[in-house]
Design a protein that fits this description.
globular, 9 helices, alpha/beta, binds adenosine-5'-triphosphate, UDP-N-acetylmuramoyl-L-alanine:D-glutamate ligase, nine-stranded mixed beta sheet
């Protein structure tokens, strides 16, 4: 079982001809909204990869539909709390060139309490995985509790925050980060990733695949060929698939291979949580 302490956002997309200047009021020519947030994306990816996942998070009342959507996708939702704070949301303004600006309100995502997290993890079993990113509060308490209970602790260090990593690093068993985050981390610590003492570190490298760093050394995995149309959510999909594989006992190599395949399909699609491929789509695409 994967316990995902993660953000749930409402992504609101506004299409505009140009970005408004200071003081300008501009009518958008299109609007759409969807489920987003790294946490929600990863929960959906885990469920699509056929592993059990329970999301630990918080939303406001107007965001009830996000919990319903996660449930529809096969995510367990009893630990998604409805509180008196607006659901996290991102106002994403996209101009005619596809350039975007984003205003993010973290809202309920950063109002988790220790009792919410503790109640969820009290249902976990040794060997389960706690997954965390950097878009909620509560990572220190969660990782500490999880470690005491014998869970494996997985951390996607995004959005990157050197202080957060420094506080958590002793309790992380599996870390997933992209190339930029890996460089930021090495710069912040002044040491190579291997020196952090984390058992398994996986760095995603976009079109170049990924590398896995462990006490066995460093191993490179090539990406599968793709014609990318939208890379949003590829990293979250990769991480969800990787951890689902590990939770299902598939081992690191097989899990990485599945994650690469899922990432490949994801970059060929527009959208995020709502279009994360399931195992059957992966089997069909790769002729498995
Ligand atoms: N151009 C590409 N061709 C094939 N696969 C890709 C491509 N870009 C990304 N991927 C797949 O997606 C995975 C994650 O991509 P990347 O390293 O860009 O993560 P990220 O920066 O976290 O992504 P995101 O844009 O979602 O934040 C890669 O490891 C790979 O499997």
């Amino acid at each position: 079982m994967i316990w995902n302490l993660g953000s749930i956002n409402i992504d609101k997309f506004y299409g505009v001809t140009h970005h408004p200047a200071g003081g300008e009021t501009l009518a958008a020519h299109s609007f759409s909204e969807g489920l987003g947030g790294k946490g929600a994306n990863m929960s959906v990816a885990v469920a699509r990869a056929a592993a059990p996942v329970s999301h630990i998070g918080a939303i406001g009342r107007e965001g009830r539909w996000t919990r319903d959507r996660l449930l529809e996708y096969g995510v367990d939702t009893p630990h998604i709390h409805e509180i008196d704070v607006p659901t996290g949301h991102a106002n994403i303004v996209v101009d005619a060139e596809g350039e975007n600006t984003i205003v993010l309100f973290q809202g309920a995502n950063v109002r988790l309490t220790e009792s919410m997290i503790g109640a969820a993890l009290s249902e976990a079993s040794a060997g389960d995985i706690l997954l965390m990113q950097n878009e909620t509060n509560g990572q220190e308490y969660a990782s500490h509790t999880a470690q005491k209970l014998g869970l494996r602790v997985a951390y996607a260090a995004a959005p990157f925050d050197a202080d957060a990593v420094a506080r958590l690093v002793d309790r992380i068993d599996i870390m997933v980060l992209n190339a930029i985050e890996a460089a930021q981390l090495e710069e912040a610590t002044g040491a190579p990733l291997l020196a952090l003492g984390i058992r398994d570190v996986v760095v995603t490298l976009g079109a170049d695949g990924c590398k896995w760093i462990s006490d066995q050394g460093e191993r490179a995995f090539e990406a599968y060929p793709a014609q990318p149309v939208d890379t949003t959510g590829a990293g979250d999909t990769f991480t969800g698939y990787l951890l689902a594989g590990l939770d299902r006992g598939l081992g690191m190599e097989v899990s990485i291979d599945l994650a690469l395949k899922a990432g490949t399909l994801m970059v060929m699609r527009h959208g995020t949580a709502d279009v994360i491929p399931d195992l059957k789509e992966i089997q069909d695409h790769f002729g498995l």
